[in-house]
Structure formats: structure tokens, C-alpha cells
From TrEMBL:
Pathway: Nucleoside biosynthesis; alpha-ribazole biosynthesis; alpha-ribazole from 5,6-dimethylbenzimidazole: step 1/2. Its EC number is 2.4.2.21. It catalyses: 5,6-dimethylbenzimidazole + nicotinate beta-D-ribonucleotide = alpha-ribazole 5'-phosphate + nicotinate + H(+). This is Nicotinate-nucleotide--dimethylbenzimidazole phosphoribosyltransferase. One of its GO terms (molecular function) is nicotinate-nucleotide-dimethylbenzimidazole phosphoribosyltransferase activity. It comes from Stutzerimonas degradans. InterPro entries: Nict_dMeBzImd_PRibTrfase, Nict_dMeBzImd_PRibTrfase_bact, Nict_dMeBzImd_PRibTrfase_N, Nict_dMeBzImd_PRibTrfase_sf. Belongs to the CobT family.
């Protein structure tokens, strides 16, 4: 087995971090007056290896796959929606497509395996299988499928690097994938599924109870085999979740900062960090979603999200919404005058 994800991720540039900190101290404002925007600019300087970072070239990819656990009645929507949304992504009508367009970023759409085979122009169809298996009865993926899904994410990171991306956003699409994320979080964290399972795409009370039962059944079935993150991901994950984890690891190895979206993407980030903790500094977190399990995952990752807007759409949409905040942090850092340049007495503001 090629365990490429264990390779060390890029170190942060301590010299550029110090230079960025020094610049912040010279700008015409009281020290710390711009709050987290100052810290973001300094963090990006260390990640990008330059005193004046930029977030203009954003690589946006969305990974899709179906989930066998949908057989348990865990979603308010039929699985056909996964394929229909792929059409919507390439047609430009999905929320992430709109936001990527506003950012001036192309949207890469990668189909890892829907129940029904699709042939859509503008979509990369990798076809690892007709969705994952129902993890309440067996492992979600084979060893080969897991390797292929992780590798698909790494390949995306390599394409982002080839395009000189300054930031990576990964999105997801797959009916049933909040169930998958809840199961992964429950297996990897000391939390009861009772506190992690939520309504997802809009389940009623009976639907949430079915979803909780499916997660509990899966945890009992796989408990003796989930000692490590890789096997946990294979048994309880999804094609798109594994690909996201691979993309986050690949970006950290390539030296590309990542902006992580909501609950499902954060569950993938948790898997990535458990597989290789050296990727953690490369992960920024866009928002706290309305899904109840997201807070537990963020806390486990010691992550402080940028936004809290009650979002629960997924797709990578929350991350795309947060990009202008990073851009403004960089603009303030790069373009504000220093005390010397503005002929303002230091300490006067």
C-alpha cells in the first residue's frame, strides 16, 4: 500500500511570519485594532512564504458520490438528486457555482461514483463504484476504493499547485453524507451520536431518529475494526469525504492553504489530521454550520471559524463566502500605509 499521506507536509515560513508581524506593528492603526484580520494576514504570510500574501487565485473543486446508507431512510431527498446537482454545478446554477464565478474561479467537478452512471460534459467521471456500500451492513468502501478516493484528492491538489493556486476550497455533494460525517465524528471523537446527528437536508423528527439508528448500528458493527483513522474512513466514510481528506493532505504537502467548509468537509479534515497531524497548520475554517455535530468537530480540531451565519447547505459554499474576508485581510495588510509613509506619529492612533 502506498501510504503517501504520511509524507511530511510543508513547514511554515517563520521568517515571513515575523516580517508580517513587524509590518502589522508599523501600520497606521493601534496594534490589534483589526482583530483576527491581522492574525489571518500573518498566518497567510507564513503559509505562502511571503511578507505580503494574496488570495486571488482560488482553486475550487467539488467531489460527488452516493451513499449506500440512504437505504435506511436517512435523507429527505432521493439519491437521484446527487446526479441532478452535478448537472446544476456544470450548468452554473448551484450556489457554489455562483460563488466561484463571483470569485473568478473555475469550478472543477469530480464524480467519484453515483448510483446511476452519468456522462456529463464538464464533469470528471472517475466511477469508483455505484456509490458506497450500506455501512450499517458492511464496510462502506473496499481498500482499493479508499486508495482511489484519497488519490483523487491528491491529484486535485497537484492540479491546484500546477495552477499556482494561493488557496484551495473543496466542496462535496452526496445525498446521505451528513450521516456519513456523523458516523465518522462519533467514531473518532469521544462524543455520543446523540449529540452529533442532526437534520441534515431537512429531516423531520422521525427522519432524524432513523439517521441516529443507522449511525448507532454502524458503530456497533464496525467498533472492533476502527482503531485507526484509515480503517475508520474506509468503513464509515464516503468517496467524496475520502477525496476531500486526500485533497487537504495533498495541499498541505504541496504548500497550498486550505479553506475548509462545513460539517462534512470538517469531518474530512478531522480524518486528514488524524492520518497526518502535520497538515493541521494548513487548514483554515470558513464557518460554523447549523448542523449540531459541527461544533464538536471544530473543537476537536481547535478550529476557530471565520463566520457563523447558520449555514447548512454544504457544497463548499460557506468557504467560498469567506474568501472575500481573507482577501480584505490581505488588502489591509498589504496596502495600508505605515506610520513613516503617512507621516503619522507612531502611537498617535
Amino acid at each position: 500500500m502506498d501510504e503517501w499521506w504520511k509524507e511530511a507536509c510543508q513547514p511554515l515560513d517563520a521568517v515571513m511570519r515575523e516580517r508580517a508581524l513587524a509590518r502589522q506593528d508599523q501600520l497606521t492603526k493601534p496594534r490589534g485594532a483589526l482583530g483576527r484580520l491581522e492574525a489571518l494576514a500573518v498566518q497567510l504570510a507564513a503559509l505562502q512564504g511571503c511578507e505580503r500574501p494574496q488570495v486571488e487565485r482560488v482553486h475550487v473543486s467539488v467531489f460527488a458520490g452516493d451513499h449506500g446508507v440512504v437505504e435506511e431512510g436517512v435523507s429527505a431527498f432521493p439519491q437521484a438528486v446527487t446526479g441532478q446537482m452535478l448537472r446544476n454545478f456544470v450548468g452554473g446554477g448551484a450556489a457554489l457555482a455562483v460563488l466561484a464565478r463571483r470569485l473568478g474561479s473555475a469550478l472543477e467537478v469530480i464524480d467519484l461514483g453515483t448510483v446511476e452512471p452519468l456522462h456529463l460534459a464538464g464533469v470528471s467521471h472517475l466511477r469508483l463504484g455505484p456509490g458506497t456500500a450500506n455501512f450499517t451492513r458492511e464496510a462502506a468502501m473496499s481498500d482499493q476504493q479508499l486508495q482511489q478516493a484519497l488519490g483523487a484528492g491528491r491529484d486535485t491538489a497537484r492540479r491546484a499547485a500546477a495552477g499556482a493556486a494561493q488557496l484551495f476550497i473543496g466542496g462535496e455533494m452526496g445525498i446521505g453524507n451528513t450521516t456519513c460525517a456523523s458516523a465518522l465524528a462519533a467514531a473518532l471523537l469521544p462524543h455520543s451520536p446523540l449529540t452529533l446527528v442532526g437534520p441534515g437536508t431537512g429531516l423531520d423528527g422521525d427522519g432524524v431518529r432513523r439517521k441516529l439508528a443507522a449511525v448507532q448500528t454502524a458503530l456497533r458493527l464496525h467498533a472492533d475494526h476502527c482503531a485507526g483513522p484509515l480503517e475508520t474512513l474506509r468503513r464509515l466514510g464516503g468517496f467524496e469525504v475520502a477525496a476531500l481528506a486526500g485533497a487537504y493532505l495533498g495541499c498541505a504537502q504541496q504548500g497550498i492553504p486550505v479553506l475548509v467548509d462545513g460539517f462534512i468537509c470538517s469531518a474530512a479534515a478531522l480524518c486528514a489530521v488524524r492520518l497526518n497531524p502535520t497538515c493541521r497548520p494548513w487548514l483554515l475554517f470558513a464557518h460554523r454550520s447549523a448542523e449540531p455535530g459541527h461544533l464538536a468537530v471544530l473543537q476537536a480540531l481547535e478550529a476557530e471559524p471565520l463566520l457563523d451565519l447558520g449555514l447548512r447547505l454544504g457544497e463548499g459554499s460557506g468557504a467560498a463566502l469567506a474568501v472575500p474576508l481573507l482577501q480584505q485581510a490581505c488588502a489591509l495588510h498589504n496596502e495600508m500605509a505605515t506610520f513613516a509613509e503617512a507621516a503619522v506619529a507612531e502611537g498617535a492612533v
